[in-house]
Each structure stands twice: as C-alpha cells, then as structure tokens.
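Field reference: sequence -> structure
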Amino acid sequence: MKIMAEILLIAGLWFGVARFAPRTARAWLLNALKAWVTVRAFWLLLEHPVTLADGTTVVAWRLILEQMQTLDATTFWTWVVFATAIKFVGILASMYRWRILLAGQGVELPFRHIFGAFLIGRFIGTFLPSTAGLDAYKLYDAARFSGRTVEATAATALEKVLGIAGIFLSFLVALPFGIKIFGDKAAIVAGVTVPISVGIIAGLLALLWLPGIVQWILAVLPLPARARLEGLVLRVSRSTAAYADKRGLVITALCLSFVVHFTTAAMYYFTALAVGAGAKAEFWPLVFGSSIQIFATVLAPTMGGVGAREWAQLVTLGHMIGPAAAIVSAALGFWAAEGLTLFGGIFWWIRGETYHPAYCRVDGRQVDYAEAARAAADLLADTGVDAAATPA
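Structure field:
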C-alpha cells in the first residue's frame, strides 16, 4: 500500500512539474524526480524478498552476492565480449540509420564522421537521463556543419518514431519463438499484444506517409485528449514531410531500427550466459522477454532506465533463469553497452575547434563550414536556445 501511495505521489509531482513549473526549472526538477525514482527502484529491488524452490525466502541482494561468487572468470569475460559485440552491431545500425535519415533531408556526411559523433553523443549521454545526450549532440553536430538545423531536427523526429516502431517489430519477430515464457497464458498474451503491436507500427507508418488520414480519424473518433493528439500528429507530419515520397528510405530506416533493438535484446542472452545461467538460458525466450524489458525501460521515468531494466528482467525472466541471474544480467547488459561509449571521450578530445568532416554536402553542394556554423547559431538564438550551452 505504501508503494502504491508513493507511485501516485511521484506521478502527481511529475504532472505538476511538467504542467506548472517554470520552464527554466522544469528540466532540473524532472531530472531530480528521475534520480529519486532510480534510487528507490534499486533499493526496492535489492530488498525484494524472493521465494526459493524449497519454500524459504531470501532478499534479492543476498541472492545476487551468492550468484556473483559462483561466476567463472573465463566464462564471464567470454560472454561479455559476445554481448558487447552484438550490441556494437546495433550501434552501427543506429549510425547508418542517422546517416540515411540526414540524406533524406539532403544532408550528406561521411560515415567516419558520424561514427565519431555518435560515440561522443553516447559518451555525453552516459551522464544524462535517457538518450538526451546522444540526441542533443548529434543534432547539434549535424546542424553545426550543414547549417540545416530544421532538417536535422526533422530527421531526429522521424528517428524517434521509427525507434518506437523498431521496438514493437522486435517484439513481434521474437514472439512466436519466445511466447512460452508466459506458460498457459501465452495464447491470451499473444491475442492481446499482437494486434496492438501491428496497429502501432501501421499507425506510425501511416502518420509518416498518410498524415491526412490519421488527422481525419482523430477528428471522427471520440478519443480522449484529442486536441493534444492532433497537435502531435501535426508536428510530426510537418517535420517529416520530406520523407513522404521516400518510402524505400523509411522502410530501410525501419529495418535498421529493428536491428538496433533486436541486437540489444539478444545482448541480454549473452549476459545471462556470462552470469552463469547456463542451460536455463534459451535464446528466443530470453530475446522475447528482453524486448518487453526494453519497452519498459524506455517508458520508465528513471535515469537511463536504471532500476526499471532490472525489475522488468526479474518479472519476465526471473522464473526461467533465476531471480539473481535475471537482475545481474540486466545490469551487466547496461555496462556492456555503456563500455563502448567510453571511446567517445577519445573522439571528443581529438576533435578540437578546428575540426570539420572530410565533406558535408547539402543538396549535392559542399557547404561553407563557417557560414553553416553561423546559420545554425542564428537559428538556435531565434528559438531561444543558448548556443554556448550546447555541447561542442
């Protein structure tokens, strides 16, 4: 009962801050709430009582310590390397997705440059909530060298839409092979989630290609919060209008989004092996359960999904590989992914004020970098963004 009261209190505070707090203080207050939720989630997780096969009960942190003491170093590091490698494939897919989305707006940058910019953004994002650091840096980077802030912002908007679609697509691909984690309820879960997932993917693609139809549906159906939904549809359709006649490009980006999220889900299979799950770890059930965990992590109001990731993995896979292995494998997945971002600090240090990519073409013409930087700074100033506060 206390936990439910705390959840309702935090939800009320979140709504109040988002709705009524001054704009200058809103981001700081929301991040403070995220930090609190993260700490509380971990505290409750570690203190969570787990019932063992013999009927005895033990708190989660004791199980985790026992699990860690049984790990074999060779097994651990071998599978961590595999986990990191499969995650790196997903990061590469994310880089290529950003490159082709920029190309759809007429902005061409070499992959070598995008590779470094992405790692810098991920490095900065290690210290910020969710994907804020990566999104902000690569948006700034593209605008700085192309002078096309509006176009880079539109590419970011589409990237977010396709990212959500990629999560549901990963879920649908893994579902037929991993649905057994729900046991007798598998048919019910599939019957409810498959239509919803297909509908969300179809709706997002319709929003990109047929915004008029989506707006008509919103106008006809008696939906709650219609005005807000209509505003969202209008903003997304305007920002992504350049892709309306580029369906092949959008499908390619959607496929890359699937690779991004599927490889992340697959990474948790290898981290489960690393923490000693052994024969209990089956690939498809683990990937399917992890796809659910990824969605929960994205929605959770925590710092980078920390805490929510471990809870979701415990709930979906704890009965399969054991509570301790589920929690530790989730935490290890975070570090296997974030370990790669440390290299971003090297790129950030190497790329000084005089750095520029080998080329940056807008609509087929090489840009003047000094003019592009001024144009980006002017547009940021017009929109009220402090250019000096933007990561360089």
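Note: The first strand starts at residue 49 and ends at 51.
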